[in-house]
Design a protein that fits this description.
Structural class: alpha+beta
Mean pLDDT: 81
Helix content: 10-25%
Largest sheet: 8 strands, antiparallel
């Protein structure tokens, strides 16, 4: 497992590719994620699916199956999505994230 600390984040990466960030400034994390997602989408390399799961002071990215991602939701996290014009399906729950243009949702894209 690798560990890196960068100011407001403590980043850990495990061999299976999952990532866990312990975050002291969630607004800064969301803003950085929004910027990166927008750049990736503009370059044609982006992913509009929800892949980061947010807790009170952490974010986890799961590289696994959809059922593993749904398990993250059952633990009380919500998925972060900042893709422009992203709308979760009507049956899902959403709430505004800290950063304008981002939402938190209990929907996992297949």
């Amino acid at each position: 497992m690798g560990r890196q600390e960068t100011g407001h984040l403590r980043w850990e990466r495990r061999q299976n590719g999952h990532e866990l960030l312990v975050i002291s400034d969630m607004a800064r994390f969301e803003a950085a994620f929004k910027t990166r997602q927008a750049a990736d989408l503009a370059a044609g390399e982006g992913d509009t699916r929800t892949r980061w799961f947010i807790g009170q002071n952490f974010a986890a990215r799961i590289f696994a199956t959809d059922s593993d991602e749904r398990d993250m939701l059952s633990l009380g996290t919500l998925g972060l999505n900042c893709a422009p014009h992203y709308v979760a399906p009507p049956q899902s729950t959403t709430q505004p994230a800290i950063v304008e243009g981002c939402i938190l949702t209990n929907y996992v894209d297949a």
